[in-house]
Specification:
mainly beta; 4-stranded antiparallel beta sheet
Amino acid sequence: QVQLVESGGGLVQPGGSLRLSCAASGFTLDYRAIGWFRQAPGKEREGVSCISSSDGSTYFVDSVKGRFTISRDNAKNTVYLQMNSLKPEDTAVYYCATALGCTDPYDYWGQGTQVTVSS
């Protein structure tokens, strides 16, 4: 019954912002790491960000540092990815996934949400 559901994607102009949500069910995310990944057409899937359960450490791929933030709301069993100053190259399907730790294998994945940055 473990399930992750992403939401919040859509069409936004360059320089705009979106907040993606990853809602967990079937488990409590308090003691799990949650990572965000993205895949654009013709490109490899890449890790974007991760938040650790153990110490709350956060990680970001270089291309989004300073623009994206990741946070968790344990009461809502939800992790968020706040995306600011969006660029066309951020266009991709964004997925959330969970693992014991940010560098461990990811066990469960959501279905993804489309983010399109275009004028």
